[in-house]
Design brief:
Elements lengths: L6 H30 L1 H16 L7 E2 L10 E3 L4 E3 L2 E3 L9 E2 L9 E2 L3 H5 L2 E8 L7 H18 L5 E8 L2 E2 L1 H4 L6 E2 L3 H11 L16 E8 L6 E3 L2 H6 L19 H13 L2
Parallel strand pairs: 7-8, 8-11
Antiparallel strand pairs: 1-4, 2-3, 4-7, 5-6, 9-10, 11-12
Helix pairs in contact: 1-2
């Protein structure tokens, strides 16, 4: 996969891989497919494609388009972690450092703080079943990832693409090699409110748990061509948000995710 890919095609590919694995191998097949990262890598490729469409040179994107390596292993305050998609800074050289604080004391940072802080990191996650059951753990992990990097590098620009299946897949049906969807619309408003709360970080001296830009990708996989919700009106028409809901995906949708993130970087670093 070395060509540009749209988010729509990425979602179709994701659906085909997940549902094919369920039909062929049931729960074990689905778990093996998830572990392979093949489905979610399609979303990675769509993110990279959008960066390229917004004039980011290909040589600055890690892993490169169509590749899963090399990933940049960036050091924060608590841990070093491979990042899903990064945009490396133009005109900055890596500067290896030995860390002196926190849990990473005496560990080697192969990039250095200045290089790391000027790197854009975008992490990509998905949840297609048990949305309510696993919410707290996954949300806490999402917050912790941002906090880890922002404590050490407060000016760093972070993005998050979080895809949820609505309605969600029934994990019980996986056991019988069946594709069944569960209608639990109330979960959507909780997700929207929660991701609004960690979106659009503008101040570099506070709110380390926030991201500079979050995309909550809400997808209906029941259709042959899955439906991506991009507006509040679409969600309300589908009964996924109450008419009087204050929750809004206006600043969480895919359409302006990359452009908004890059604009924040430009204004922060003037580059």
């Amino acid at each position: 996969m070395s060509n540009l890919i749209t988010i729509e095609q990425a979602i179709i590919n994701f659906k085909e891989l997940i549902e094919g694995s369920i039909i062929e191998g049931g729960t074990a097949g689905k778990q093996a497919m998830i572990r392979s990262s093949k489905p979610i890598n399609n979303i990675h490729e769509a993110v990279k494609s959008e960066l390229i469409n917004n004039d980011i040179p290909r040589h600055r994107i890690f892993p490169p388009l169509g590749k899963t390596t090399p990933e940049l292993k960036l050091a924060g305050f608590l841990k070093q972690k491979y990042q899903d998609v990064c945009v490396a800074p133009e005109g900055k050289e890596t500067n290896e450092e030995i860390l002196t604080e926190g849990l990473l004391q005496e560990a080697t940072d192969y990039y250095g703080m200045e290089y790391t802080e000027r790197t854009i990191s975008i992490n990509i996650r998905s949840q297609i079943s048990s949305l309510a059951k696993n919410f707290d753990t996954l949300y806490e992990r999402t917050i912790a990832e941002a906090q880890n990097l922002h404590v050490r590098c407060p000016r760093m620009c972070l993005g998050e693409v979080y895809m949820i299946a609505v309605p969600e897949y029934s994990s019980d049906a996986f056991k019988n090699n069946d594709i069944v969807f569960l209608d639990r619309a109330g979960t959507v408003e909780k997700y929207v409110k929660s991701f609004q709360a960690i979106n659009s970080r503008t101040e570099t001296n506070k709110d380390g748990y926030k991201y500079e830009r979050v995309c909550l990708l809400i997808v209906d996989f029941r259709k042959e061509v899955p439906k991506i919700y991009n507006t509040d009106e679409e969600l309300k028409e589908a009964g996924l948000l109450p008419d009087e809901a204050e929750a809004s995906i206006a600043d969480l949708n895919w359409n302006n995710f990359t452009k908004n993130l890059l604009n924040t970087y430009f204004h922060r670093f003037n580059h």
